[in-house]
């Protein structure tokens, strides 16, 4: 919970870390079933990725969680990820959030926060690595 804010912590609104973990799991099921996105994840250790992605989203939706993974610009650099890929990826997260009955208001807030990372993921702001 967020002590100095009337609204509950955004992480609580998506079901806490356990709920978020299930949502992220479902998101990657959808991503891997998407022919345009699946090739990016060939050979990737998905258990670890689900864990790190859950931690990352938890860290941007709660003041209490720290992200301990790799720098987002570095981890996505050189993979050829376009804005279209980014949008498609986020749409699978949206579907997973909806499937877990997260409110439209909370979904909007999560998407707004993630949008701030699109340049890092697509390399648009990545001039020197
Ligand atoms: C909001 C968008 C995204 C976020 C927040 C995000 C976040 C992350 C995080 C936290 C990791 C794990 C870093 C670590 O292991 O320490 C990761 C890895 C990865 N991401 Fe993303 N990602 C996003 C979008 C995408 C998209 C659109 C693609 C490709 C279409 C992608 C492909 C990958 C791949 C292939 C890895 C695994 C790298 C490896 O372990 O070798 N990501 N991402």
From TrEMBL:
Keywords: Heme, Iron, Metal-binding, Transport. Heme binds at residue 76. Transmembrane segments: none annotated. GO terms for molecular function: heme binding; metal ion binding; oxygen binding. InterPro entries: Globin-like_sf, Globin/Proto, Hemoglobin_trunc. Gene3D superfamilies: Globins. This is Group 1 truncated hemoglobin. It comes from Neorhodopirellula pilleata.
């Amino acid at each position: 919970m967020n002590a100095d804010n009337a609204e509950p912590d955004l992480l609580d609104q998506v079901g806490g870390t356990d709920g978020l973990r299930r949502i992220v799991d479902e998101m990657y099921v959808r991503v891997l079933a998407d022919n345009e996105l699946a090739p990016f994840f060939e050979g990737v250790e998905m258990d670890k990725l689900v864990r790190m992605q859950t931690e990352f989203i938890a860290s941007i939706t709660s003041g209490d969680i720290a992200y301990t993974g790799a720098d987002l610009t570095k981890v996505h650099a050189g993979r050829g990820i376009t804005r279209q890929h980014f949008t498609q990826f986020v749409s699978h997260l949206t579907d997973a959030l909806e499937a877990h009955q997260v409110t439209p208001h909370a979904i909007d807030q999560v998407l707004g926060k993630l949008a701030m990372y699109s340049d890092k993921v697509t390399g648009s702001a990545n001039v020197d690595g």
